[in-house]
Each structure stands twice: as C-alpha cells, then as structure tokens.
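notes to self, project folder thing:

trying the whole complex as one job this time. last attempt i did each chain seperately and stitching them together was a nightmare. two parts in total, labels are on each line so i dont mix them up again. if this works i'll redo the older ones the same way
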Amino acid sequence: MPRDAILVTRILHPHLAPLLARVAGIVVEEGSLLQHATTLAREFGVPAIVGVAGAHTLLRNGDEVELDGDTGIILVRRST
Amino acid sequence: MKPYRRHLIGLPLQRSVFSNIDQAPQLIGLEGVLSDDRLGARVDDVGDLYLDPNNVDQLATAMSERISPRFLADMERSLVSACHTVGCTTDLCRARAAAATADEVRLLIGTLGSSLRTLVPFGILSKFVPDTLFKALASTAETEIPRLRYDSPGAVLTRDAFALYEECGEQGFPPDRLLAEWPAVPPVIAERVREFCEKHSGFGPLPWEAPGYEDPAYVFAALRAIFADGDSAEMSRRLGDGVRRSGNVPRSDGARIRSLFEETELQSDLDSAEMQFPQSTETMLRRAIVVWLEFLERETWYVRRAFYAGLVPLLRRLKSDQGQRNEVIAIDDLLFFELDELSARQVIPDLARIRREKYLGNSEYLIEYGISADRLGRILGES
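result (full assembly):
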C-alpha cells in the first residue's frame, strides 16, 4: 500500500491496526459508529468515515481522494 | 436469507464454538423478546454466518427500553466474566497440557470449549449493543464517544511491530532478509522474533488457521508491507503523536496487551456494595460503552489466543497419546472434529476425511485467508 494512501475497506480488524501508521485516512463500509475502525482512527489521529455502503466499488485504486472526517464528505478525483 | 458474513470460519473445530450463538440474548438479560428466546443466528457447514436482522432490531429496541443501572451492571458483569473465564482457562490449558493424561486433556478441551461457547455470542451481540448504548447516551445530549482507558491493543501491536522492525534492521536483518533466512538467523534475533510472536499471538483474522501474528513469516511480511519503505523518523513521530492525540491514560508499566479480566478495579466495583446504584444511568452508559469498545478490540484476540496458547498444546498431547495407541489419524485431522467429539473420544478417522475434503473444496475461503496446503500441519507440528 502506498504511503499516505486512503484505505478503503469493508471492515477494519484490530490486527490491521499497523496499517494506520502509514495511511492518510480510512473509508469503511461497515455502518456501526462504534467499531474497531473508529477507535483506531481516533487513536492514530487519522480521519475516518464509516458506513459508506459500496465504497469498495465506488472508489478505485488510483483515485485521488480527499476526506473530511468532521463532515463525512468524500471528494473523488477520478483517475483516467 | 443472505449470509451476514461469508466465509466467517472454516474448520469444524472452530465452528463448534459457535454452537450457542442463538442463545446470545439471555447472556445480557434480553429474555422474552424473541420467540423461544432464540436469536436467528447460525454458522452453516461452509462457515457462513447468518443473522436475522429483524431479530437484531427487536433486541436493540427491547434493550433500549430496559436500560437501567442494574441492567447495565448485570450485562457488564456477564461480559467481563466470559472474558475472564476464557483467559484463565486458556492459561490453565497451556500450563497443564504437557503433563496431562489423555483423560485430563479431554476434560480441558471440554472446559475450554465451554468457555469459548459462552464468549462467542458476545461477538454477535456486539453487532448492536454498543450502538444501542451510544444512542441511549446521545439521547442525554452527550455526543462524544467515551475513550478507552488504555492504549488499544492495536496501538500496542503497532508500536511493538515498529520496535521489532527497527531492532532487527539495526542488526542487519530487514524484513526481506528475515523472510529469506528464517529460522537460520542469529539467536538474539530469533529470540526477539519469538518473543514478539508469543506476545501478539491472538492478533489475526478470526479463522484460527489463517496466518496471523503468531507466525514469523506473517510478521515479516507485515513489517515489510507497513514499514519497509517508510521514513523511520516520520513513522516514530506519527506513532507518538497518535498516542498523545488519543488522550488515553499514559502507561507506566510498559505497553502490553491488557485483558478485560485484568481490570480488577472494574470487577471489584461491580462486586462491591456500592453498586446499589447511586450512579446515574448516564454514568453507567458511558462506562458500559467503554467496556464494549474494549471488548471489540479484543474479541478475536481471545478466540485466537485460546486456540494457539490453549488448544494447540492440548491437541499435540492428544495426538501423542493416540500415537502410542496406534490409532490411524493425522495430527491435523483433529481440527476436523468438534470440541465435544474430541472431549468424548468420538474421533472417527472417516469423519475427519469427509470433512477435510469439504473444507479443501472451499477454495474461495482458502484463498481469501491465504491458507496454504501445508498450513494445518504446520500449526500443529511440534514447535
């Protein structure tokens, strides 16, 4: 995974926590507000947006993505 | 009904610890909500989890109506007790395995299985309980999610992994070299790696046989993927900043993985006479959320650690006994029996063969979790 990438995942398990040391943000499909991803993201100071149904298909490898963890807005500049 | 989770678990031995998940509501005082008090939850014979969303909604609604300091205290006591029992039983199995007779081994397998069957339903409950608690808290105008009392196990794992990466690198063993040369590395490196794997055994995917941090090859691959092209100074700063930002309680005893059952303060609170509920529902809600958040960080760890630290030594001992009696069974055949079958001596070689064929036919599952053909034998091979 490239450094400072945005990690898009269905669910973030605790054993994947070390990935947060190199990502710039995470987008999680799982809808629960209280889950591993939110705990870890808060602890690592990484912006996270959860409950993004279909994120796996909406976002593609290589897309330039900007996250706002406060508003929950995801901006995508699509790679061609 | 569509599966709630596909490919959750594959081995019959692990599936058998999911046999009580339909009884989850009773564990937290939600009797009388569902017909027959049975949650529509099961793991089928290919390891897919089914969970009735209507049942979950019914339970969440009933729970929000029943929340009171006593309800929350009872729920917390039940959860902490289940964690405590699995942890203690795992340690007992590990301590006794080498010297146990075959009958003692079977008894221990049954005891460990029973403790896991009580713990696993809490994982199902975690699909709705924490959010229900938070909604109740939010209704009191509190919107901030309460913080963990300590660094999360994931943060401890990350810092320890980075320290291992740096220490091995300083001695000329970056991840690529470790992958290429392990186990033929200097004793000091081997000892350091084994110490790391021992400490973090339990971190990994839910399926027992999927590689995780108990496996040096997995660790080396993880170190390479996460740290190898990074800027060490930047990484170090980021990990340090993360902890400061978290606002968690600073640790004076060195980072280690805490278990819920280690929280003696929590336990003694619950056992004390003070729990005649002078505390408000809001205070108890905040506390309950923290306990469930901490459980979320450890639920898989408990289940995997019970396998690697507790069950694997017992299975090796059991096979050793069977070998002496010339029974025709491979050690990894034992993974294709249910816990009750192992503890009741119902070990029929043909049954293992049929189940193994079905398991190996689930190639999607094996690929998803990176389970190689020799993985099962390696897990149970003598260390």
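what i see at first glance: The longest helix of chain A spans residues 36-44.
need to look closer tmrw
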